[in-house]
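Margin note: ligand = zinc ion.
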Amino acid sequence: MTLQQFMNEAISPWMRKDGPDSDIVLSSRIRLARNFANVPYPIAADPKELEEIRSFFKEKYEGQDFGSYKDLAFVSIRDLSAIERRVLVEKHLISPLLAKHSEAAAVLISENEQVSLMINEEDHIRLQLYLPGFQLSEALQQAFEFDDWLEEKINYAFDETRGYLTSCPTNVGTGMRASVMMHLPALVLTKQINRMIPAINQLGLVVRGIYGEGSEAQGNIFQISNQITLGKSEQDIVADLQSVVKQLIEQERYARQQLIKQSGDKLEDRIYRSYGVLAYARIIESKEAATCLSNVRLGIDLGLLKNVSRNILNELMILTQPGFLQHYAKKTLAASERDQLRASLIRQRLQLEQ
Amino acid sequence: MQCQECHKRPATLHFTQIIQGQKMEVHVCNVCAKEKGYMTYPEDGYSLHHLLSGLFNFDTSGLTSTHAENYQQSKDLQCPKCEMTFSQFKQIGKFGCAVCYETFNERLDPIFRRVHAGNIKHNGKIPKRQGGDLHKKKQLEDLKLHLKKLIENEEFEEAAKVRDQIRALNQDDDHSEAGDQS
Ligand SMILES: [Zn+2]
Ligand SMILES: [Zn+2]
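Resulting structure:
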């Protein structure tokens, strides 16, 4: 496995598989924060200590075939160009914070890209595990297996009362952030999402718009995750999140049906117009592209658009971001050049489907 | 990202500084943070009341030079391992190492309560290799809770089974203790 393979494809191999409820839930993720017991956290450690952790992982885990996650590839952040770092962030394989910490930061990525193990981020270890569709408890189970595997070789910073000790007090306890990415176009169109978000927040969960700035969701994609990590077991946290996600799925499906019933013609028009823009535009900004892609994806889910694959939203949302566009062009691009290249890539991608 | 002071070491501290209402992003390494007074260490008298973290809504709004004295007093609580002081922790909102948790322990409950909806105790996974005894303790706790529920629901047959499981776990203890003594 080479870095080039992680860079070339916009969507990770696991994304090509449909999971349960994947008309609405794009992916499920478990992230575990872990630290070495006797080394200060990256914020306070000296460079030598962090370098030791980096090389510990390079020597011990690189290439190790962990269960279904074959061949872990080791990538040092300092060896990457700015564009390459950005591509890994856009694929969600590393966090923006890790991309900034160039010196001793590294990541281990599994061949199918379902597992990534960030080293020397805010904590020494950030384990991320993705599954397609709505599979939170499966993701938890698999993340635990991986965690057990690591724990055999590493003395974790763990305390009977406080649990897994992390650099940020918001992660202490389980160290776990469970999250799902959801495509909720009908709840946005009917403006129901605005009154649902505060209600979800009150349950101790966080709703974020993804790819967009702040809470505004580009492409109607939202990330829902737990906020509390102390006092509840991982299973309980996941169960709480699951019940909210289930309700959101039902509400979204219901809103889609209502939209078809009440304004089916308008909806169809909107979907085909978006398809037209994507198929023929010569210049397209990321926000318009995201909106049109969301509409096209809705058209696919509703059975209106037959010759386009469901992956197109995931794929083009990632492929048309600045990092990927510049990686593709093999040079730095101005915003206007990016808008042209984005339009041309989307056109090509849609033509492939026909 | 490089440290904005020395341009040599990587920046390990990232925070927002507010000076006269102007927000500024600060990225420095911990060496420069110490030297340039971004962080207070006991040996220097630099106060950091102008640094705001905002993360936990600590009441820093009223901090003026008169309040600085109170700050100096709370400063003596310092982590022996990573040298982070409690006031630094409040400012940046991050622990420097695992020992910080012991050092600041008595002051942490209110913070965790605020961040974790009133919770202060871990109730989740326990690492297998490190937490042998803990595992058993947790298992016993869970079984006792289960037993209580079964009795409440008058499911006595099932309750008897759980009671036996609890006995077996406790007996394991007795055996190993006896073994230790011989
Ligand atoms: Zn510096
Ligand atoms: Zn410390």
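The pocket of zinc ion (ligand 1) is lined by residues B 3, 5-6, 9, 28-29, 31-32 (CB under 6 Å).
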